[in-house]
Specification:
Blueprint: H1 3-15, H2 23-31, E1 52-55, E2 58-60, H3 63-72, E3 80-84, H4 90-98, E4 101-106, H5 109-121, E5 127-131, E6 148-153, H6 162-166, E7 168-179, E8 184-191, E9 196-204
Parallel strand pairs: 3-4, 3-6, 4-5, 6-7
Antiparallel strand pairs: 1-2, 7-8, 8-9
Helix pairs in contact: 1-2, 2-4
The chain binds S-adenosylmethionine (SAM).
S-adenosylmethionine is lined by residues 58-61, 84-85, 87-88, 90-91, 105-108, 111, 133-135, 154-155, 206-207, 209-211.
Length: 217
């Protein structure tokens, strides 16, 4: 089956029946070619609903979990989104399909260089890249943006990443897979004027977030 058909089938069998109903998310998944983000040896598995190795002990996330995370924080056309953990750039592309601008940080330089190349070849022009510790957020980095509408952390954090919460706008939402290094829960933090609401959305398994206030290397 052609990749285009496999992509459509993945959306119809793995996303929509499991409750992914946000039309913007569905359209982004129908458009972004996951096969372009995985190495030759894994291409034939591009549209199976599970993570795949991208080298450096890292993974491209399971499509359903990415779709769920994007739906839970309600990515909008006017959003400036901060993504922690670019990896191969697949989720970055999905975010860039919907949001106004995406700011993405990856700690492994080789992965960032490769993701940048793939995303450039796919002609995305609304993505800004940073190499470094995403736990610190988008600081001393061009373009200068101090607050984001949405923040999506795509590695497992032991705790609430406080520096990131401080870079979330009032009425903004941040999603974090939070828990132990082997098992986490998806948590959405909703920042209001005088309080932060916490919403729990079930279990997941991510590679560890390595950096300040998270796990050691
Ligand atoms: N978003 C990716 C996708 O589209 O499938 C998957 C990301 S992968 C599950 C997690 C990534 O987070 C890895 O590439 C890892 O190197 C990165 N990472 C871990 N800790 C980090 C940190 N403190 N700052 C930036 N990136 C980090």
């Amino acid at each position: 089956m052609r990749f285009d058909d496999q992509r459509k089938r993945m959306v119809e069998t793995n996303l929509i029946p499991r409750g992914i109903l946000d039309q913007k998310v569905i359209e982004a998944f129908l458009k972004v070619p996951r096969e372009r983000f995985v190495s030759a040896q894994w291409k034939e598995f591009s549209y199976q609903d599970h993570p795949l190795s991208i080298g450096f002990k890292q993974t491209i996330s399971q499509p359903y979990i990415v779709a769920l995370m994007m739906s839970l924080i309600e990515i909008k056309e006017t959003d400036k989104v901060l993504e922690i953990g670019t990896g191969c750039g697949y989720q970055t592309a999905l975010l860039a399909e919907i949001a106004e601008e995406v700011f993405t940080i990856e700690r492994i330089e080789e992965l960032l260089i490769s993701a940048k190349k793939t995303l450039k070849n796919l002609e995305y022009t609304n993505i800004h890249f940073k190499i470094g510790d995403g736990c610190l957020g988008w600081v001393n980095t061009l373009p200068p943006v101090s607050e984001f509408d949405k923040i999506i952390v795509s590695a497992a954090s032991p705790d609430l990443p406080k520096a990131l919460l401080s870079q979330l706008k009032i009425n903004g939402k941040m999603i974090v897979p939070q828990g132990s290094s082997s098992r986490q829960e998806l948590i959405v933090y909703e920042k209001l004027e005088n309080e932060v609401l916490t919403h729990y959305h079930g279990g997941c398994v991510f590679v560890p977030l390595i950096g300040e206030g998270a796990w050691d290397n």
